[in-house]
């Protein structure tokens, strides 16, 4: 078993996280159950912040809350002094309910609505990351109507292809996000923003993709953006106070993944920015980053109970669990791979290779193919590692299956941060039919 954070095997041969035996957690909270190792999240957050401190760079480390947004999680981010990246009014609302300081909230998105921008203004958030011309003009007009100002960054696409899954490439030219740096759009946006009275341009933002293992993509993107900033300083006397380099630092899901320590990415990127800005005679900007997955991904484990099995002789053995694509859509959507253990018998010898099926009415609802396991029986517990990012946040109610609860564990204690959905929750938005049919 690869060990993440505080996960270990206890005397009973059970998986233990944050000092809590997951077998007892399953008895108490039921399964499926998402478990977060809070100490590991804190460790990652501190490592990011320390890297900036050690290099003497003013920074904001913003947690990309799309990875897992919940009041408790946002409060944890606040405890660690992180900033917060939100991409919708819903994520912003969650942050407000959590009491997160508005001035450290950054609002993203390629199609923010008028209502969302008004909410950002009402809450006086720290910064709107403007994605397109429509938004730039709408925001200036709204600020004008209200007699207010708003800090902005312009999101630019530097034309860098990161080595990652096609669906999550965003830095290349053919992307729905941001102003293109190569074809003059970014410069046009800059000129417009500089002429505007209400929006205050702090700098630029770029994000090249997600689950990236190499630093080259980040440093190339930083180089291109800084080169452009040098040009803009000469021609428009614009000097960026802030350079936001996004998130995307890869993590280990299986032994095929060979990431750097998350903070190591940052170290290499900052060094490049320092080098390049010195070379081009620019003041070092504040650096903002937006890690999501690398803060919470490997801190999350999902615990399931094993139920039925189906043996297709000479072909494959399916073991079904009580969750699946409802609580983790990533295998179905991205062909994502995970590792798992029998959490109540971690030390038992591996006896067979099985494939883990979810319980949804969909052949594609397969969580893990070809997993080596001890012989499992109904009621055994399966712990799937690394489900902390884009698990709960992409969970759904297909087949009207309630979403599992989320607990935080730390220092031998467990705390419920999202309760299990009830059947009443599932029908609470439904309205009975009023129209009757004449017989
Ligand atoms: N900043 C921006 C502007 C982003 O678009 C994203 C992710 C992040 C930061 C955080 O990236 P991270 O550090 O988590 O890689 N659902 C997909 C991932 C989509 C990522 C979208 N944007 C998945 O499950 O792999």
TrEMBL record:
Source species of the chain: Bacillus lumedeiriae
CDD domains the record matches: PLPDE_III_DapDC (cd06828)
Record function comment: Specifically catalyzes the decarboxylation of meso-diaminopimelate (meso-DAP) to L-lysine.
Self-association and partners: Homodimer.
InterPro entries to which the protein is assigned, alphabetical: Ala_racemase/Decarboxylase_C, DAP_deCOOHase_LysA, De-COase2_C, De-COase2_N, De-COase2_pyr-phos_BS, Orn/DAP/Arg_de-COase, PLP-binding_barrel
PANTHER family for the chain: DIAMINOPIMELATE DECARBOXYLASE, GROUP IV DECARBOXYLASE
All residue ranges annotated as the Orn/DAP/Arg decarboxylase 2 N-terminal domain in the record: 40-296
Protein family: Belongs to the Orn/Lys/Arg decarboxylase class-II family. LysA subfamily.
Modified residues (N6-(pyridoxal phosphate)lysine): 66
The Orn/DAP/Arg decarboxylase 2 C-terminal domain, residue ranges: 34-388
Alphabetical UniProt keywords: Amino-acid biosynthesis, Decarboxylase, Lyase, Lysine biosynthesis, Pyridoxal phosphate
One function term, GO molecular function aspect: diaminopimelate decarboxylase activity
Pathway: Amino-acid biosynthesis; L-lysine biosynthesis via DAP pathway; L-lysine from DL-2,6-diaminopimelate: step 1/1
Protein name, entry field: Diaminopimelate decarboxylase
Keyword field contains Oxidoreductase: no
């Amino acid at each position: 078993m690869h060990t993440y954070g505080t996960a270990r095997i206890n005397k009973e041969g059970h998986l233990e996280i944050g000092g809590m035996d997951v077998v007892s957690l399953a008895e108490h909270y039921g399964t499926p159950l998402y478990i977060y190792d809070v100490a590991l999240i804190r460790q990652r957050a501190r490592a990011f912040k320390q890297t900036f401190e050690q290099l003497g760079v003013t920074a904001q480390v913003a947690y990309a809350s799309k990875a897992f947004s919940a009041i408790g999680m946002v409060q944890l981010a606040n405890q660690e002094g992180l900033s917060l990246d939100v991409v919708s009014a819903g994520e912003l609302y969650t942050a407000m309910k959590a009491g997160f300081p508005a001035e450290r909230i950054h609002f993203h998105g390629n199609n923010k609505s008028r209502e969302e921008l008004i909410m950002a203004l009402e809450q006086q958030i720290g910064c709107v990351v403007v994605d397109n011309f429509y938004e730039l003009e709408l925001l200036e007009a709204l600020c004008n109507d209200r007699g207010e100002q708003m800090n902005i960054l312009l999101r630019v696409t530097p034309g860098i292809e990161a080595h990652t899954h096609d669906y999550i490439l965003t830095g290349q030219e053919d992307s729905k996000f941001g102003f293109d740096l190569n074809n003059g759009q970014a410069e046009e946006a800059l000129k417009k923003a500089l002429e505007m009275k209400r929006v205050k341009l702090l700098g630029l933002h770029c994000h090249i993709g997600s689950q990236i293992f190499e630093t080259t993509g980040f440093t190339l993107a930083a180089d291109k953006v800084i080169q452009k900033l040098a040009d803009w300083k000469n021609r428009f006397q614009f000097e960026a106070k802030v350079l936001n380099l996004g998130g995307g630092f890869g993590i280990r899901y299986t032994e095929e993944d060979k990431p750097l320590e998350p903070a190591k990415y940052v170290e290499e990127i900052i060094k490049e920015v320092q080098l390049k800005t010195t070379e081009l005679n620019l003041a070092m900007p504040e650096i903002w980053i937006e890690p999501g997955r690398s803060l919470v991904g490997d801190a999350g484990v999902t615990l399931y109970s094993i139920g039925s099995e189906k043996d297709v002789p000479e072909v494959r053995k399916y073991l079904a669990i009580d969750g699946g694509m409802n609580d983790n859509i990533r295998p179905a959507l991205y062909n994502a791979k995970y590792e798992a253990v029998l959490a109540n018998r971690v030390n038992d010898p591996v006896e067979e290779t099985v494939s883990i099926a979810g319980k949804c009415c969909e052949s594609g609802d397969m969580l893990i193919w070809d997993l080596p396991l001890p012989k499992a029986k109904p009621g055994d517990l399966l712990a799937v590692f690394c489900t902390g990012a884009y698990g709960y946040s992409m969970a759904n109610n297909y087949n009207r299956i309630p979403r599992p609860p989320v607990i935080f564990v730390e220092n031998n204690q467990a705390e419920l941060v999202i309760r299990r959905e009830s059947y009443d929750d599932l029908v609470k938005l439904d309205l009975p039919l009023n129209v009757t049919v004449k017989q």
